[in-house]
Structure formats: C-alpha cells, structure tokens
C-alpha cells in the first residue's frame, strides 16, 4: 500500500528539537507492506483522515525514520482477525485513531490502517467520512480530560437538566481549538455551564457549539473580568497549554483552588491550584514512551482504555449531539496531508479541523 512515511534522521530531529522548528517536510510517500491484523484487530481501508498538531510534532521531533504517520481515520472494514470477526464485517463503516508516528505498524496517512476491534466506533448514517474522521485524537482527549479527570458526567449517562452551581461550571481556555469544541459540547451535554476564551473572530463559533460566556484571551483585563463574573470556578481545561495559558487558567481558579487539566507539559506552577497533563494515547491501553530511553514514559492504563471503549460505543447514537467541528477538506490525498501539516506548523488553523480524503 502507499503511505506517508517519516524520514527524518535522529540528527535532524534533535536539531529541530533544539531549534524549536523544523527543516523540510519530514515525510515521503512510499510503498510499504499492508498491516497484518492480529486476532482482535481489524484492517480499515482509509477514506478520510483528520489532521492534528501532534502529527507534525511527531514527524518533526520524535518519529524514527521509517515510521508510519497520522492518527485519525474513517473508512470501511477491509478485514478482521478471528477474534474480531463477530464484531465487524467487511464493508462496515468505522472510525477511530491510532498512535501514529512511532512504529512501522500504525499510521492513518495510509491506504490502510489497523486498529483494535473494540477501539473503533461504528459510523451512523447521516455522518459522512470527513465528519467521522474528526472524532479521533481531539474528541477523545476532551472526553479523557472532562469525564476521567474533571468529574464531568459521562455523555451516555446524563439526565439532561441544566446545572448552574459552581461545581457544575467549567472554564475552557481556547474553546475554538478542536479539543475545545468537543469539550464545550461534552460539558453542555452534562448540563454544565461553560466559560471559555477565544479570539473575537471565533466568538460566534464557540457559542454555536454551546459556550455560555466567551472572553477574548488577549484583552488586558480578561482574567479579572472572568473572576469578577464567575468568582468560584474550580475546574479548567487548558486547550492551548503554551506560553501563559496555564497561568491564566490558574488565576481564573484562584479563589477556590481546584484543578486545571493541560494538554502539553507546561511545567507551570500556580499556587493553590493542581495542574495535571493528560495524554490521549493512554486511552489505547498500551505503555509507550517518547524518545526512549530518555523521554517521558507512559504506563498501561486499563481505566483509560475502558473509557475509550465506553465513549466509542456510545458515539454511534451521540454523534448527533456531539457534533463534528467545522471542517476544511483538503484534496489531493497525501499532498493534501503535507499541505495541512504545513498549515498546522504555521499556526494558521483556527476553529476548524483539516480533513483529507483519499
Ligand atoms: N496531550 C494530548 O493527548 C493532546 C491531545 C490533543 C491535542 N493536544 C495538544 O493540544 C493543543 C490543541 O490541539 P487542537 O488539535 O485542539 O489544536 P487546534 O484545533 O489546531 O487549535 C487551534 C486553536 O488554538 C487557538 N490559539 C492559537 N494561538 C493561540 C494563542 N497564542 N493563545 C490562545 N489560543 C491560541 C486558536 O484560537 P483562536 O483562533 O480563537 O485564537 C485556534 O482556534 C495542541 O498543542 C496539541 O498538540 C494534546
């Protein structure tokens, strides 16, 4: 099959890491073996893939040369291991994500991708492939942060009533990010009040997805205005996790303490507030590490894996309520992926998910 394969040497990756930027594309289209499925795995013919910032970060700094790349996918089942055959038949429409960029077996920027049979979801009628592909890394990260770490009730277990007390209020920094757009919806499904930040050009967008109040994070008095209006918020999700964003969240939580979940390792400390980073790939239930043997290690988390199974099982009916973010479709297959990765590197994507169809 054809796939987009990482090709940076360790020297280039280390140089990129030191310089904080990348030289060249770091990928090429290559002919590689089609993945072979294990007992409880399925092979998926990829029809659409959604792009995430993590894709280019892996390619630039982490992926060993020869690794397959890309995480999110939507497509049809093209084969199943013996232990997966009862769940899936050839032709079933499925979507999910894999940890692309670390080995030669997993990557969605490819004609075919393999995945564990219970870690994909069945795409309902009315959801097209481009939409289905967006419920990968961004959606599951929002679920992981809110349902596993901030005690927001599960989307498949909510009573639908509005809750307006301080315990049922969440602050979401960067609500127009795609993680933010999913997080707003999951919190609103639980009946919570959502306070968020965005650039003014994204105010309508975040409100359309359910945010109750939105503030411009660049406004000089933004923190003071939020604290004055909502003095007792104790839960935050920092969907940017760069620069001063975690400190911003900490200040919003300053009156009641509480917890801010970050998506990157910000190393920011805010007195009286707990900051904890989540890592979406733990949802896949396998141990892994960055840049072994020196990088951070992540252990197996069976509770994360169970959470992903639960979320993906419920998505078949919930995808009507937890909607895909706005989508920008890029044509031309692998060329479209390369163009999209460059747009993400340049920070030129706002309030939209880049999706490529094959
Ligand atoms: N730990 C994990 O497992 C995990 C999982 C998913 C993502 N992530 C990381 O989380 C981050 C967000 O991912 P994503 O896919 O949601 O990204 P995304 O959709 O590409 O985020 C784009 C948004 O970032 C906002 N933004 C850009 N510059 C900003 C700034 N200086 N201050 C505040 N907001 C700014 C923009 O909002 P406005 O246009 O409104 O300004 C834009 O809508 C990325 O760093 C990603 O690598 C980590």
Automatic annotation (TrEMBL):
Q: Name one GO molecular function term.
A: oxidoreductase activity, acting on NAD(P)H
Q: Where in this chain does the record put each Enoyl reductase (ER) domain? A: 24-356
The record, for Gene3D superfamilies, names: Medium-chain alcohol dehydrogenases, catalytic domain, NAD(P)-binding Rossmann-like Domain
Q: Which residues form the signal peptide?
A: none
The alphabetical list of record keywords is: Oxidoreductase
Pfam families assigned: ADH_N (PF08240), ADH_zinc_N (PF00107)
Keyword Oxidoreductase in the entry? The reply is: yes
Family statement drawn from the similarity comment of this UniProt entry? Belongs to the zinc-containing alcohol dehydrogenase family.
Protein name, entry field: Protein TOXD
Taxonomy, top ranks, is: Eukaryota, Fungi, Dikarya, Ascomycota, Pezizomycotina
